[in-house]
Amino acid sequence: MTKPVIGFIGLGLMGGNMVENLQKRGFELIVIDLDKDAVAAVLDRGNAREAASPKELAEASDIVMLCLTTSEVVEKVVYGDSGILAGIRKGSVLVDFGTSIPTSTRKIGADLAAKGAGMVDAPLGRTPAHAKDGLLNIMAAGEKVFFDKVKPILDQQGENVFYLGDLGAGHTTKLINNFMGMTTACTMSQAFAVADRAGVDRRQLYEIMSTGPSNSPFMGFCKNYAVDGVSDLGFSINNANKDLGYFLRMVEDLGTRAEIAEGTSSNLQAAVDNGLGNGNVPEIFDYFLRLEN
What we know:
Blueprint: E1 6-9, H1 13-24, E2 29-32, H2 36-45, E3 48-50, H3 54-60, E4 63-66, H4 71-79, H5 84-87, E5 93-96, H6 102-113, E6 118-121, E7 124-125, H7 128-132, E8 136-140, H8 144-157, E9 158-163, H9 169-198, H10 202-209, H11 217-226, H12 237-253, H13 259-273, H14 284-289
Parallel strand pairs: 1-2, 1-4, 2-3, 4-5, 5-6, 8-9
Antiparallel strand pairs: 7-8
Helix pairs in contact: 9-11, 9-12, 9-13, 12-13
């Protein structure tokens, strides 16, 4: 069976490794990224070309994949001059791997449907290293006929591919997941900072807490930084701050409040305001450590 031509926009750490994985598996790629070195790396591996615009990419692709930073960027790529919507073919599918606002996702999906194309939101879990080996967790949602069309490719990108139903459910699930994860990381980082203020040894605190039900991989990441000085989570405070903001917007759209998330968001924003945004999330420990009343 002939493999579909895949257009891929967004060649950052995650997207670049996803593309490399697809190339190793024999797919033809058409790519776009502002980082020309990232584009050159794709072209050097062969069976790939660069498109001049999202419209041109969509016109030549069976499946269009996005791995972009924000909903605003996704909307610009879809709706902008020479955007995806202007070039998408009937029967094609747009897959958004980023973390986006569900209402934005559903709007894009409706506009694509008007042109006979489909959309699947498929945000990701795990790391860029997993992406290179096709071992991501993928939370996919959208009309079943379009999910079924892209699932064989998703299966080569993810070890675990979950189908969650109607369009937007993937992004909803990812935002809930990130709310939980980032709140855990902030809580544990503050616990280490309070222990330090109180004269309790941070390593002993970890040894005690990690033997009980509070133990988690996020606790381990926070311990690695607060105790061992190793920052290895690979997810920035800036990104976490963005995701918590999206979570709160989603909650507002649902007509409710998430007060715990409001606290996490406030802490992340404060860390950003204090110049820590580019650091990995466990580095918020430094903010908590010097926090005064």
